[in-house]
Write a structure and sequence with these properties.
- The protein is an all-alpha fold.
- The chain is built from 6 helices and no strands.
- Helix 2 crosses helix 6 and helix 4 (72-86) packs antiparallel against helix 5.
- The chain is globular, with a radius of gyration of 15 Å.
- It starts with a helix and ends with a helix.
Length: 159
C-alpha cells in the first residue's frame, strides 16, 4: 500500500515539475495550469486539513510566479483543495467522467476565488470573464487532469 501512495505522490511532484519546466523554462503559456491539476488530484487523497495545507503550499508556489495579486492563488488553492477533499464524503471512485467534472468545477472554483481575492475587478477584468473565459480554462484543466490520470494509470499499472 505504501508503494501505491508513494507512486501517486511522485506523480504529483512530476506534475508540479512539469508545470515549472513548461511554463518557466520553456515559456509555453498555452500549457494548462498543471498546478491546479496537481492540487485537485492530490486533495482527493487527503483529509480536509491536510488538503488545505497542501493547497496552501501549491498556492504559495503559484503566487511566487505571479506578477500581481500575491496571495490570491494561495487563498484559492486552499479553498479548492479543502472542498476537493470533502468530495470523498459524497463521491467514491475516480472514473474519468467524475474526474472530468471534478476538475472542471474545481478549476472554476479556483478561478472565481482568485478573481475576488485578487482584486481583478479593480484592474479592469470584467465579471463576465467568470462566465466566458474561466469555464474554457477550466475545461482545458479538466482535459489535462484526465490525460494526466490516464498516463499515471498506464505507467503505474494502478486503477
Amino acid at each position: 500500500m505504501a508503494s501505491r501512495s508513494s507512486a501517486f505522490w511522485l506523480f504529483i511532484v512530476v506534475l508540479v515539475l512539469l508545470h515549472l519546466v513548461l511554463r518557466l523554462a520553456l515559456g509555453l503559456g498555452i500549457v494548462p495550469d498543471l498546478l491546479i491539476v496537481a492540487a485537485l488530484l492530490g486533495a482527493r487523497r487527503l483529509d480536509a486539513p491536510a488538503a488545505a495545507a497542501f493547497g496552501l503550499g501549491l498556492g504559495i508556489l503559484a503566487d511566487s510566479l505571479a506578477m500581481v495579486a500575491f496571495g490570491a492563488s494561495a487563498v484559492a488553492f486552499v479553498v479548492g483543495c479543502y472542498v476537493g477533499s470533502r468530495t470523498r464524503s459524497f463521491f467514491e471512485g475516480d472514473s474519468y467522467l467524475f474526474v472530468t467534472l471534478y476538475a472542471f468545477l474545481g478549476a472554476w472554483l479556483i478561478a472565481v476565488v482568485r478573481y475576488f481575492a485578487g482584486g481583478y475587478m479593480g484592474r479592469g477584468v470584467e465579471l463576465s470573464h467568470l462566465g466566458t473565459g474561466a469555464p474554457l480554462e477550466s475545461l482545458y484543466v479538466a482535459v489535462a487532469a484526465v490525460i494526466s490520470l490516464i498516463a499515471y494509470r498506464a505507467v503505474s499499472g494502478q486503477r
